[in-house]
Specification:
disordered N terminus, three-stranded antiparallel β-sheet, alpha+beta, 29% strand
Length: 353
């Protein structure tokens, strides 16, 4: 960096003389070099803070290392496989491939959302059509072969052998297994989010009410919170469901088989929630991760430290989290402002000289 600065500073005197400016400006320019270096350093620090933005982190007993790169925008999982969506709309799949969840993942770009059921994957194309994959030697799984055709779908989710999608008017479409009323979705329009569990699903209405359907022995369908204003939902592959209130508190219902209730973090400010078959996850206001429930896949003991996470979910093999795009720190912004002010002052002095 000093070499580059000197390269431009050395001929400054004759250039200034030729333009009618006093040569003393050259000394002022040279004295400003530390400030310019600091400006470049602060800029580098700002961009360095983005180095991990969009990257993936996995942990757990049998989890497979995630794909590299730092341009991922969304994550999802089936019971044993993980999926991630890149910024160009291409899909990455890794983990268990016994039903070709990895092998048959769609190629190409332009996909806008991803989800997983028990042993299959789903994605939304740019035109709102649904791509489904996952098969055995006997052919495609039922949630693959029965996936709806057409375009214009806006959201997608998967459950235990079942798929769900939102249409353009907010109505819910379901397909696949129906052994416990999984296809008995609520009527009407205006739903804004959906999530699939092992034996049913949950959805958010336009005003943030939680609606459930399917297996209801432990209140998974009818035991949800009352009131409105909920902003996010997550369904486990076990018997517990979660919702995020407007103030960032975590609400739960169902049955507490593995500590899904007793270990839930208290307080407000949580920004995202996720669920595995026997555990729950959350992202705190500072971007750090929380986990509770059964630790059969080392969800807790392997929990990564750090901040700036934006999404997290898990399956039987472990968990995956997504780094977000952190804002430049207050220190970096203040330092850049200070250096920028100094540089502007120097330029005014040169022009007056």
């Amino acid at each position: 960096m000093r070499h580059v600065t000197r390269f431009f500073a050395a001929p400054a005197a004759p250039l200034l003389q030729a333009s009618g400016m006093r040569v003393t400006a050259h000394a002022q320019f040279a004295s400003a070099r530390p400030g310019m270096c600091l400006l470049l350093l602060m800029t580098a620090l700002m961009f360095a803070s983005h180095a991990e933005a969009g990257s993936l982190v996995t942990w757990g007993t049998n989890i497979t290392a995630p794909p590299t790169g730092d341009d991922y925008t969304a994550i999802a999982r089936s019971d044993y496989t993980q999926f991630a969506l890149k910024s160009n709309g291409s899909i990455a799949a890794w983990g268990y491939d016994g039903t070709n969840e990895v092998t048959d993942a769609p190629t190409g770009t332009g996909y806008t959302a991803i989800a997983g059921s028990r042993f299959a994957g789903f994605a939304l194309a740019a035109d709102g059509s649904i791509a489904a994959w996952g098969s055995t030697e006997d052919g495609p799984l039922i949630e693959v072969s029965s996936a709806p055709t057409g375009t214009g779908y806006t959201a997608i989710a998967g459950g235990g052998g079942t798929g769900y999608a939102l249409t353009a008017n907010g109505s819910i479409v379901a397909w696949g297994n129906d052994g416990n009323g999984e296809l008995n979705t609520p009527a009407g329009t205006g739903y804004t989010a959906i999530a699939g569990g092992a034996y049913g699903g949950i959805a958010l209405t336009a005003d943030g009410h939680v609606v459930g359907w399917g297996y209801d022995v432990h209140g998974q369908a009818t035991g949800g919170p009352t009131g409105s204003g909920f902003t996010a939902i997550a369904a486990s592959n076990g018997y517990a469901d979660y919702a995020l209130a407007a103030d960032g508190t975590i609400v739960h219902w169902g049955i507490d088989l593995f500590g899904e209730f007793s270990g839930i973090p208290t307080g407000t400010g949580y920004t995202a929630i996720g669920a595995s078959p026997s555990a729950g996850f959350a992202v705190a206001a500072d971007g750090s991760l929380r986990v509770w429930g059964y630790n059969n896949a080392d969800y807790d003991t392997g929990l990564p430290a750090g901040n700036d996470f934006t999404a997290v979910t898990g399956n039987y093999n472990g968990a995956v989290a997504l780094f977000g795009v952190p804002e430049p720190s207050t220190f970096v912004l203040a330092a850049m402002s200070f250096v920028g002010l100094g540089f502007a002052t120097w330029r005014r002095k040169v022009r007056k000289a």
